[in-house]
Amino acid sequence: MYKILICDDEKDIVRALRIYLSADNGEYDIIEAYNGKQALDAVKNGGIDLLLMDVMMPEMDGIEALCEIRKFSDIPVILLTAKSEAEDKRMAFRLGIDDYITKPFNKIEVAARVEYQLKRNSWKNSGAPAAQSKNVIANGPIVIDDDSKSVEVDGKAINLTPTEYSILKFLAENAGTVYSPKDIYKNVWNADPLGMENAVLVHIRHIREKIEILPAQPRYIISVFGYGYKMEKMN
Questions:
Q1: 200: part of which helix (H) or strand (E)?
Q2: What does the pLDDT look like over 76-100, one tens digit per residue?
Q3: What are the pLDDT digits (tens) for 96-124?
Q4: Same domain flag for 214 and 130
Q5: Over the stretch 125-149, which tens digit does the pLDDT of each residue have?
Q6: Which of 122, 155, 172 is the last residue of a domain?
Q7: Do 82 and 190 have their domain in common?
Q8: Which tens digits make up the pLDDT trace of 15-38?
Q9: Quick one: average pLDDT of 204-216?
Q10: Among 46, 80, 130, 144, which is least packed by CB within 10 angstroms?
Q11: CATH of the domain at 39
Q12: Angle, in degrees to the nearest 10, between helices 107-120 and 162-173
């Protein structure tokens, strides 16, 4: 059973999200929080598989809580935002959210985005060794084991968030092909970007910081001016 933490200072919203998710999937254990500090404490206690969290909250807002959570946890985080909070979305992607949902909510969208993020993060329950995996993507020094969702570069294990992993995997599977930020967003998030292509740029910068020796002079994920990004084909 997946344990989902819903955090919003408006109890009616928390109640509605609980109803949406419980109606669609009886395997969700829903935990409630009403400010960022409560959400942070719940994640620290462990066992949370996904966090749905509002931005504007008392005591500690969603951005502050996210910043603290990313210091010790890579659980999927979906931010709940108002349409007017575009700058908050950009900041949240820089800090490591995996997706966002704009208020007012659509029941089907909420259920679909939660299910998608849980599926992408289900590798946490998998311990398949890379040597025995049948789903390995190798491109030069980059080795991606899609069974264990592990990444190695030059034999060194790299710790990526689920979204970073999905972007790297997508580019590796299509090494040599240039994709615009919009195309990357569509393929990784399974949704239209709606002006949020900047999230792709932020995640690629984070990936480069983790896999490149010199992130400012990348060898693996290359910018193609005026078009987008590609992973160099090294095999």
A1: helix 198-211
A2: 999 988 766 566 667 777 778 888 8
A3: 888 888 888 888 888 888 887 887 777 54
A4: yes
A5: 444 443 444 688 988 889 999 888 8
A6: 122
A7: no
A8: 999 998 987 656 799 999 999 999
A9: 91
A10: 46
A11: 3.40.50.2300
A12: 80
Q: Which residue's entry shows tokens 């910068």?
A: 205
Last residue of a domain, one of 101, 122, 143: 122
What is the distance between the alpha carbons of residues 99 and 114, in angstroms, rounded to a whole number?
Answer: 9
* Single-letter residue type at 20: Y
List the one residue out of 140, 114, 92 whose CA is nearest residue 27: 114
Q: Are residues 130 and 212 both part of a single domain?
A: yes
CA-to-CA distance for 160 and 206, rounded, in angstroms?
9
Tell me: do 223 and 191 sit in the same domain: yes
- The band of 4, judged by pLDDT with boundaries at 50, 70 and 90, is very high
Q: Which domain covers residue 186, as residue numbers?
A: 126-231
Alpha helices in 25-144 (DSSP H): 36-44, 62-69, 86-95, 107-120
Task: List for the chain the helix, strand, coil content (%; round to 5).
Answer: 40, 20, 35
